[in-house]
TrEMBL record:
Domain Uncharacterized protein TP-0789: 71-198
Organism: Deinococcus yavapaiensis KR-236
Pfam families registered for this protein in UniProt: LolA_like
Signal peptide segment: 1-19
Signal recorded as keyword: yes
Organism lineage: Bacteria, Thermotogati, Deinococcota, Deinococci, Deinococcales
Keyword terms, alphabetized: Lipoprotein, Signal
Protein name: Outer membrane lipoprotein-sorting protein
InterPro entries reported in the protein's UniProt record: LolA/LolB/LppX, Sporulation_related, TP_0789-like
PANTHER family associated with the record: SPORULATION PROTEIN YDCC
Length: 215
């Protein structure tokens, strides 16, 4: 699967930001006040050679460097769960009732070519790995949408566009373009919540009767 950059997890800007650098700086400042966050991602993404519907729920605690992703669609991944921290990715496969534990570096969790450890501290990942620019602003003051475009500092050819709503300062949409300019991922972010009292134990919880395989 094409890399899906989840850098949008932390892109919460300022109502008066005039440049991408200002937005990113305020993202990092705002992240310090977020104890936990959760949201739904839905849309389409390339997976196993074709475009498929994607629906998943994300929960994370930045200070504990732990995130949980639960799949609702496509059908092949429904009810699968990924739990990730700085070092380890645990993937629960519903159909086999099996948990595969791998290091972050060696993992291809759920068939995705994506470093899920980004979810544990997305603002830091953004600053370290992407060049970001503001490409569009739409709407009247108080109800604007900012569109940011990010390109990899590490030679990657994919481009990522993220829509940030001024109301609530949260990401609402992300697109990924391949090197040829074709949209490979188009996702909507909804049900965004912060500081709801999530705990590391709840995020890490997986079925106790599942077989554990370490790789």
């Amino acid at each position: 699967m094409k890399k899906i950059s989840l850098l949008f997890l932390a892109l919460l800007g300022s109502a008066f930001a005039q440049s991408a650098n200002e937005i990113v700086s305020k993202v990092e400042a705002a992240q310090k006040n977020v104890k936990d966050y959760s949201f739904k991602i839905s849309g389409t993404a390339n997976f196993e050679g074709g475009s498929q519907k994607l629906d998943l729920d994300v929960k994370a605690i930045p200070s504990a460097s732990v995130a949980r992703v639960q799949f609702n669609a496509p059908d092949a991944l429904a009810d699968n769960i990924i739990v990730v921290d700085k070092n380890t990715v645990s993937t629960y496969l519903y159909l086999t009732n099996q948990i595969t534990v791998q290091t972050v570096k060696s993992s291809s969790a759920g068939g995705f070519n994506f470093d899920f450890s980004q979810l544990t501290n997305a603002s830091q990942f953004l600053s370290d790995n992407y060049n970001v620019k503001l490409v569009d602003t739409d709407g009247a003051s108080g109800n604007r949408t900012f569109v940011l475009e990010a390109t990899s500092k590490n030679g990657g050819t994919d481009r990522n566009r993220v829509w940030i709503a001024e109301q609530g300062w949260r990401p609402t949409r992300v697109q990924v373009f391949n090197g040829s300019g074709k949209v490979t991922t188009d996702l909507t972010i909804s049900n965004y919540k912060t500081n709801t009292g999530l705990t590391s134990a709840k995020l890490r919880a997986l079925p106790k009767d599942a077989e554990v395989v370490k790789r």
